[in-house]
Amino acid sequence: MTIARPTTLDQALDALQDMPDAHLLAGGTDLMVEVNHGQRRPRRIVALRRVAELQGVDSTDDGIDLGALTTYRQVETDLAADAPGLAMASRTVGSPQIRNAGTIGGNIGTASPAGDALPWLIAMDAEVELAGPEGTRRLPLAEFLVGVKQTAIAAGEIVTRVHVPDIQGPQHVAKIGPRSAMAISVASLALVLDTAGRRVRAALGSVGPTPIRPTAAEDAISQAIDWDALSCTADDVDSFGQAVARAAAPITDHRSTAEYRRHAVGVLATRTLTRCLFT
Questions:
Q1: For FRET with 266, which of 32, 45, 198, 252 sits at 20 to 30 Å CA-CA?
Q2: Strand partners, 67
Q3: Which helix (H) or strand (E) holds 47?
Q4: What is the C-alpha to C-alpha distance for residues 117 and 122, in angstroms, rounded to an integer?
């Protein structure tokens, strides 16, 4: 196995040019599982952990700028106030060892339907910054994720940063799985009350090939909420959960049936909305 260990972004891009079939390695929490299970046998790897440009978290006037190598541990400790929903999601990821190694950029690049960070990022309209042979570009995360473990990344490109807009208001993230942590989600949901835009933002995970924005449900509950009092009726909350369930497009697999996933994500919708409004 040939391993390149660049320390700058230019070196990383050069390594990909020299080894176009190389696998990118960040925290390794997804790649090494596939290697251990015999699902991948990479002959070349570009290890990104030492690349300075992919590290660091910056607060800007427009929001939060996350380096692709930002770990779940950094999020849950350093961003608990600025990104509470992402911090909630991060706390449920694996063990402490996994959270010390796993990265936000890796979660995006893997593009698993069950990616724990993805629903919150989608609900927040996050954008992905990519660097490649043709320069840099930014793409909405919703457009970057195109299928099950499939992305719009071009040959020779690397995810460098994630830009999250500044959206103020209560937010909550929840998931259902065999355990509350250290388990892949059967269904997950992120919900954000955009108090300035008077808009409910939601995204569903593990109930479709990519995270789903239930826009019809968002529209209805956004109109139903009294934004001055930040309240709505119990019937409105129930209707929101039902609309979210209808928006799901789950499958049946070894972890759950489609029917259960659809029901579960509706329950998560009512719970998260209730917690944002009444706690």
A1: 198
A2: 161
A3: strand 44-47
A4: 9
